[in-house]
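User: Could you go from structure to sequence for me? I need the amino acid at each position, not a summary. Structure tokens:
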């Protein structure tokens, strides 16, 4: 299936530092474009339009950015939100080369039979716990899929599980996540309840003796460089940042 073309027009931004608070009050979201070590480009856009793009593109769908200086093909590197007002406050874009491969995290979702909205295990009263929601892939920007699916109809009995090795990526897409990583596993409700009681209500998937625990799960919430540092080296999709976008602008301003 061909990728949906996403285009976003952005205006140059002269307001930096603490002044971006005034922009946000006017319904404008500040943003920055990193371009392979070149000086970062400070831009801005309408908040509703930016939020729509974020929802459609995530961090894996290329966007054609149109600015007054030049056009870019970019991936969203980071999006920051106000935790109280749940409003988009800042976006960092990472320019990519359409002819070079990039790495990105792609969502995983179950695929059910047309008449069903749950797996056979769930329909029989068992519990399916999801242990992995994204996999890292490498592909040309235009080849990045919006999601990968697994066959949920294979989840029938206790102990049945789906691993990364069960995913079938589209042509031109390489999955980088270790193939043995578990995506979803079927559990007996009573076993989970017993494990939870034994752990004082803090049991995690894998605490029950009948299921092997998952180890080495990568933390995708690692830190990321601030706005005023150029990015894009190696054509990799950077991981999310814990640094607030407003703080980035303060440093840049």
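Assistant: Here is the amino acid at each position, in order:
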């Amino acid at each position: 299936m061909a990728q949906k073309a996403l285009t976003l027009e952005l205006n140059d931004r002269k307001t930096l530092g603490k002044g971006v608070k005034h922009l946000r009050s006017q319904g404008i979201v500040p943003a920055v474009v990193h371009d392979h070590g070149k000086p970062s480009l400070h831009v801005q856009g309408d908040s509703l339009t930016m939020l729509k793009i974020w929802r459609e593109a995530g961090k894996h769908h290329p966007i054609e950015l149109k600015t007054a200086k030049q056009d870019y093909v970019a991936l969203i590197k980071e999006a920051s939100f106000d935790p109280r007002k749940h409003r988009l406050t800042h976006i960092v874009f990472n320019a990519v080369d359409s002819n070079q491969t990039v790495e990105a995290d792609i969502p995983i979702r179950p695929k059910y039979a047309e008449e069903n909205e749950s797996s056979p295990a769930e329909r029989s009263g068992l519990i399916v716990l999801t242990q992995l929601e994204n996999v890292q892939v490498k592909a040309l920007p235009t080849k990045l899929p919006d999601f990968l699916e697994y066959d949920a109809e294979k989840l029938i009995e206790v102990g049945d599980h789906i691993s990364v090795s069960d995913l079938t990526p589209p042509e031109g897409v390489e999955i980088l996540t270790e193939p043995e990583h578990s995506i979803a596993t079927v559990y007996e409700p009573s076993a989970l309840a017993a494990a939870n009681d034994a752990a004082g209500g803090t049991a995690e998937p894998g605490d029950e003796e009948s299921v092997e625990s998952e180890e080495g799960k990568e933390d995708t919430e690692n830190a990321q460089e601030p706005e005023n540092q150029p990015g894009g080296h190696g054509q990799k999709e950077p991981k999310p940042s814990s640094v607030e976008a407003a703080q980035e602008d303060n440093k840049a301003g």
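One structural detail worth keeping in mind: The two ends are 43 Å apart (CA to CA).
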